[in-house]
Write a structure and sequence with these properties.
- The protein has 13 helices and nine strands.
- The chain is an alpha/beta fold.
- The chain has a single domain, classed as NAD(P)-binding Rossmann-like Domain (Rossmann fold).
- The chain starts with a strand and ends in a 17-residue tail after the last helix.
Length: 327
């Protein structure tokens, strides 16, 4: 019994994991409600019998399947509960019954919600695992509750569970029309590597580290984001003049940005700190802001090879005027 079960195999991360496993000759089973070259079994994790069948011969679970924040605009709250909560519970209970060696749940930094928005005049929020989530929509609520289910099942059945709160790694344009009106998607995403974005290749490695360390750690929640060049003492200046802080911490970016017609943010309101994941999981992310700049100089693009291969999948057949957070 050594098969790895990957849920959400048609999605960005699920496909990336399946591609990585196949390239490494790892026995993995991809499941999803959508057919894809990386989906071995079609079905819904909300159906307990389906989950039970898929768990046969499985030694570890990477649970990436989810309704995402953009689905807030198109799906009911009940749909979020069915997939993100009931589906996760089905997987956890069947994983416990199968006595798998590791269960890794892909969560999101969106769980922190309003806790990441400091009041006017306050320093940028320094976001660690100690920050108490204040979800702003059903997506965040469902992911926090699913995290708690992971902790519960660890406590009840000694199921080794690791929760990875991943920051942005999708290549889709920002869901904020105002942000897109000011800067191109690549400009926005390059800026985000300073404080709230991570490369999908590094996300893959974080999941592999979590698989390896879950039996030792038992349970843990970890932020998965690119290593920031900022320090907690930069918080006040980041709100007033973010570019000045970037000049000090990562000199040499302005000329490259000028060549591409890009600009830095005026203000940054939060910074994700990945120290716990690096120290406790042994994770070594490679794509920080400086590395992304070097990639841009060399290739004219900020995307990694895996990001190129997967491309943009999209979430909806049509666009919406209001960002999901407003709903």
């Amino acid at each position: 019994m050594n098969k790895i079960l990957v849920t959400g195999s048609a999605g960005h991360l699920g496909e990336a994991l399946m591609r990585s496993f196949r390239a490494r000759g790892v026995d993995a089973r991809g499941i999803d409600i959508l057919a894809s070259p990386f989906t071995d079994v079609l079905g819904s994790i909300a159906e307990r019998a389906f989950v039970e069948r898929c768990m046969e011969g499985v030694a570890a679970v990477l649970h990436t399947a989810t309704l995402h924040k953009p689905h807030v605009a198109t799906h009911s709250r009940q749909a979020f509960i069915d997939t993100n909560l009931s589906g996760t519970l089905n997987l956890l209970e069947e994983a416990a019954a199968a006595r798998v060696r590791a269960f890794v749940f892909t969560s999101t930094t969106s769980t922190f919600g309003r806790a990441m928005t400091p009041p006017a005049g306050a320093p940028a929020a320094w976001v660690t695992e100690a920050l108490k989530p204040v979800p702003r929509n059903i997506y965040g609520v469902s992911k926090v509750a699913a995290e708690d289910l992971c902790e519960l099942m660890h406590g009840l059945h000694a199921l080794p569970c690791i929760v990875l709160r991943t920051s942005r790694f999708f290549p889709e344009p920002d869901d904020d029309p105002a942000a897109l009106a000011r800067r191109a998607p690549a400009n926005l995403q390059a800026n985000e590597f300073l404080y709230r974005r991570v490369d999908i290749e590094d996300v893959i490695e974080a999941h592999l580290c979590a698989l390896r360390e879950a039996p030792r750690l038992g349970f843990g929640r970890f932020i998965v984001s690119a290593t920031t060049p900022f320090r907690p003492e930069d918080g006040a200046e980041l709100r007033r003049d973010a570019a000045a802080v970037v000049r000090r911490r990562v000199p040499g970016w302005e000329e490259l940005y000028a060549q591409h017609g890009w600009t830095m943010f005026d203000s940054i309101d939060r910074v994700y700190d990945n120290r716990a994941a690096r120290e406790q999981l042994g994770w070594s992310p490679r794509a920080d802001f400086a590395a992304v700049l070097e990639r841009l100089r060399a290739t004219g693009d900020i995307r990694s090879p895996m990001a190129h291969v997967i491309g943009i999948k999209g979430y909806h057949p049509r666009s919406f005027g209001d960002p999901p957070d407003a709903i």
